[in-house]
Amino acid sequence: EYSCSRYRPAAAARHTRDTGNKCLYCENFITTSNTEDSPYIGLCRLFSVRSFDGRNKNACSKFAKKPELRSG
What is the SS3 assignment for the chain? Predict the structure, then answer.
């Protein structure tokens, strides 16, 4: 098998499904339920029309991690 001597695999370019990210942690996931019984129910602002549990669904290729909240 031939490979170019200049080829370097990108270490940072990993597919989101390999990392186990869930929709709940994506900035495109909007929480629609304000009750304590189901705080993880919401929808994706890019693809979804129906609400779903963000903990159970794997993130898509458009995954963008939510910015962390800083107190201070």
Answer: CCCCCCCCCCCCCCCHHHHCCEHHHECCEEECCCCCCCCCEEEECCCCCCCEECCCCECCCCCCECCCCCCC
Please check whether residue 58 is in contact with residue 22, taking contact to mean a CB–CB distance below 8 angstroms.
yes
pLDDT for residue 36 is more than 60: yes
Phi, psi for 25 (deg, rounded to 5): -95, 5
pTM over 0.70: no
What's the mean per-residue pLDDT of the chain? 79
Handedness of CA 44, 48, 49, 50 (dihedral sign): negative
Residue from 24, 33, 31 nearest 63 by CA: 24
